[in-house]
Amino acid sequence: MVKSTHDLPIIRCTCGYELLLLTDAQVMGQAIENHVLEHKNKYGLTQKQTESLEEYLIAQAFELAEKKSKQR
Fold it and tell me: What is the pLDDT of residue 44?
């Protein structure tokens, strides 16, 4: 679920881990990939589960970025 803590744009993983939304899409994508890889290694996720989690986080990032751009 998209959440803002202290006015910082934050996306939250299903595990509760929070990632700060970054303006550099490539760096943000890498941060998401790294976190998803941690899940894959720690919990033995299938490829489908891994892709689903990654899509979930990316969707949040896009949603939050859109909200932030409308606030300007």
Answer: 95
CB 54 within 8 A of CB 33: yes
* β partners of residue 12: 18
Q: Say which residues have a Cβ less than 8 Å from residue 63's Cβ, sequence separation at least 6.
A: 2
Query: pTM of this prediction?
Result: 0.86
The count of structural domains within the chain is: 1
CB-facing half-sphere around the CA of 3: CA atoms within 13 A: 11
Domain encompassing residue 63: 2-71
Calculate the alpha carbon distances from 63 to 6, 32, 57 in Å: 18, 15, 10
Q: Phi/psi zone of residue 3: left (φ > 0), alpha (ψ -120 to 50 degrees), beta?
A: beta
